[in-house]
């Protein structure tokens, strides 16, 4: 114990302790940044109806029109019924009539809440938008109402980049970073 008192040998020096704390902080900051980078920032809500059922179709059209009105009035800021409108026949992995609503994470809680209260008899698939379409539409998906079997063979297993749909809004993946 040359030159050290028993108590000083049991406690690391303040510079060593400070260095360890800084290193732990850097590791924690890197892990935290990784969590932010991996966070899902955009979602789709797919509203389904039976395309051979007139009442089901009319109900879906009214639901979509109400969403468009709420976007126009500013209730939804990061919610957009996609430009392709209403699919009156199966499209992509969706085996029945549908329309799609894009939602940025900034408005997810409001959008989810609204659909819970207003979906009527429609089943709604909710899925994230990432580079992994098949996982997004299956193991990462959630349903309001009765799930509808999807044709996952129509999807790409891995995309080169996350699909960016409304960068002009500056939300979701297009939002400024921290």
TrEMBL record:
Pfam families attached to this UniProt entry: DOPA_dioxygen
UniProt cross-references to InterPro entries, sorted A to Z: DOPA-like_sf, DOPA_dioxygen
PANTHER family, per database record: AFR070WP
Source species: Lobosporangium transversale
Region described as Disordered: 1-29
Stated name of the protein: DOPA-like domain-containing protein
């Amino acid at each position: 114990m040359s030159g050290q008192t028993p108590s000083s040998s049991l406690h690391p020096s303040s510079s060593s302790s400070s260095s360890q704390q800084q290193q732990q902080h850097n590791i924690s900051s890197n892990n935290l940044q990784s969590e932010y980078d991996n966070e899902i920032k955009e979602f789709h809500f797919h509203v389904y109806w039976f395309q051979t059922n007139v009442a089901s179709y009319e109900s879906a059209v009214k639901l979509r029109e109400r969403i468009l009105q709420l976007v126009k009035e500013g209730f939804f800021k990061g919610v957009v019924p996609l430009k392709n409108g209403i699919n009156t026949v199966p499209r992509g992995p969706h085996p029945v009539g549908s329309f799609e609503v894009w939602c940025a994470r900034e408005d997810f809680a409001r959008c989810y809440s609204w659909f819970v209260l207003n979906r009527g008899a429609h089943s709604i698939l909710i899925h994230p938008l990432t580079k992994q379409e098949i996982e997004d539409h299956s193991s990462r998906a959630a349903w309001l109402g009765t799930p509808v079997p999807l044709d996952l063979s129509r999807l790409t297993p891995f995309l080169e980049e996350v699909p960016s749909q409304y960068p002009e809004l500056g939300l979701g993946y297009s939002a400024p970073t921290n």
